[in-house]
Sequence to fold (262 residues):
Amino acid sequence: MDTNSLFRLDGRIALVTGGSRGIGRMIVSGFVAQGAKVYVSSRKAEACEETAAALGENCIALPHDISTVEGCRALAEDLAAREARLDILVNNAGAAWGEPFETFPEKGWDKVMDLNVKSPFFLTQALHALLKAGGSAERPAKVINITSIDGQRLNPWETYSYHASKSALIYLTKRMAARLVRDHINVTSIAPGAFASDMNKAARDHGDAVSKAIPAKRIGSDEDMAGTAIYLASRAGDYVIGDTITVDGGLVNASLGGSIDG
Ligand SMILES: NC(=O)c1ccc[n+]([C@@H]2O[C@H](COP(=O)([O-])OP(=O)(O)OC[C@H]3O[C@@H](n4cnc5c(N)ncnc54)[C@H](OP(=O)(O)O)[C@@H]3O)[C@@H](O)[C@H]2O)c1
Fold:
């Protein structure tokens, strides 16, 4: 068995939404290192350009706001003008909203559900033809949705729409996988735990405190996230379909619950 090529992405074309920073950038870095040509998308053109410049000529900025269906279609059209196929789509761009139950506003639902649930669906729909062109029985195309452990278990924060959106995306991953497998497009998801980013300021600014509650006693690293994404994107992950891989140092699946009898 040639395990050297098992995780390689040479010649593959990838698009990572929200790839300019945080978890998206960790995945972009990993894909580029494995030989892929990677398009980095987010709203801020300058941030995309900076990331692309830092990661080399196989990394290309393609800025778009994908919070609307029109925005998703515009990004897909822009990519279609440059490439005849897409091998890997990572739906990573996401938003959160925290506010007490009593005042939690409708816009805190719309913003989060639009970007975290509707955009992965409508962007994948808009890129369907390109993904079909990229996928074959021998080498399926991949759609990887970045969900969250907040879709698998509760945390103390009042992030009502975020919890619901991530749980919805975990289930949507299965439903889309069931439809798209016949087009040789495998849909999966990664549910991250605590990774340092602008969104997870607690992990970024108070990593030591956050680590205490994690069975592995540390927050996630760039390699933890890149490694999982490379696995799912490459030949190594071809037989994983519809599933969510939890990457959280054991919080969801290896934490001991408290005793109810003292
Ligand atoms: N960090 C964690 O601990 C953690 C844990 C579990 C799950 N996640 C998930 O991981 C994903 C990435 O989160 P992160 O922590 O890396 O957050 P982040 O640092 O805030 O990054 C979010 C990325 O999405 C882009 N983005 C935001 N709104 C957008 C829009 N309307 N259109 C296009 N791009 C947009 C941002 O760039 P612009 O501002 O330029 O648009 C940025 O590149 C999210 O889905 C999040 O829910 C994170």
Summary: The CA atoms of residues 163 and 171 lie 13 Å apart.
